Amino acid sequence: MKAEIRKIIESKKAIIGTDRTLKALRSKNLKSVFLASNAPKNLMVDFEKYSGMSGFKIVKTKFSNEELGVICRKPFFVSVIGVLK
After folding, report:
1. Which domain holds residue 37?
2. Would you say the C-alpha torsion 33, 28, 21, 53 has a positive or negative sign?
């Protein structure tokens, strides 16, 4: 899964961060969402609710938000990665 996430990020189809991902979600531009294993529960509930309406796929990773930040090569924690259509 780590290689898949890196491939998505390198292809420039990734949106990193909760606010940007929710904005793309509202405009129905998302194909799937990767969530960190320790993402806040309210965030998971929100994405599951939107998933039912929009039909995008939610992938709950085994990686913590710290590990996702490293995978994305960012100097901060990453809880959500959105994948554009």
Report:
1. 2-84
2. negative
User: What length does the chain have?
Assistant: 85
Strand order in the sheet with 30-35: 14-16, 80-84, 30-35, 57-60
Q: Tokens at residue 7, please?
A: 């491939």
pLDDT in tens, the chain (85 residues): 889 999 999 999 999 999 999 888 888 888 999 999 999 999 989 888 888 888 889 999 999 999 999 999 999 999 999 999 8
**Nearest one of 26, 17, 13, 12 to 56, comparing CA atoms:** 26
Q: What predicted TM-score, i.e. pTM, was given to this entire model?
A: 0.89
Q: How far is CA 64 from the centre of its chain?
A: 12
Give the CATH number, domain containing residue 33.
Answer: 3.30.1330.30
- Across-strand partners of 14? 83
Q: How many domains does the chain have?
A: 1
